[in-house]
Amino acid sequence: MTPHTATVLGTLDTSAEEGLARINCYQLHDDGADDGDGLYCYWMTPGDTYGVVHDGGTWTVAGGVWTEVGHTYRLVDDGGPMESLPTRLGPLPLDPGRGYQLQVDEAGDWLVWRLG
């Protein structure tokens, strides 16, 4: 369900593999990973809604059935922090003072919603 104060900003530039999607050019980093580097390329599950907020340092992601309590998940670009999301129409700059949602629509496209 999408909040009444949400605005669709665009369609993410994504790829899919084995039922999972990724935001092209970005990875998800799990700060609490016990093994490996904690980087995930394909992590978005259709049917789940993800919240994206700035924690004062980087953009973090919450939501999804696979996330673990106590872990912080950060969007990274080539291992560094990101400032925009790629959409089909070009980069979408993010405002650290706003929250965002990512969710798939009926056509299978991942939409970016600005909250508030």
What does this molecule look like?
- This protein is mostly beta strands.
- The chain has one domain.
- It contains no helices and 13 strands.
- The protein has strands spanning 7-11, 14-17, 20-23, 27-30, 39-40, 50-54, 59-62, 73-77, 80-81, 84-87, 90-93, 99-104, 110-115.
- Strands 1, 4, 5, 6, 7, 8, 9, 12 and 13 form a nine-stranded antiparallel β-sheet that branches. The protein has a two-stranded antiparallel ribbon with strand order 2-3.
- A hairpin with an 8-residue loop joins strand 4 and strand 5 (39-40).
- The chain is globular.
- It starts with 6 loop residues before the first strand and ends with a strand.
- The model has no long low-confidence stretch (mean pLDDT 90).
SS elements, strand count = 13
Report the sheet with the most strands, covering strand number, pairing sense and barrel closure: 9 strands, antiparallel
Helix content, binned percent: under 10%
Average residue-wise pLDDT: 90
Strand content: over 45%
Low-confidence parts, pLDDT < 50 over ≥5 residues?
none
Radius of gyration: 13 Å
Distance between the termini: 15 Å
Structural class: mainly beta
- Count of separate structural domains: 1
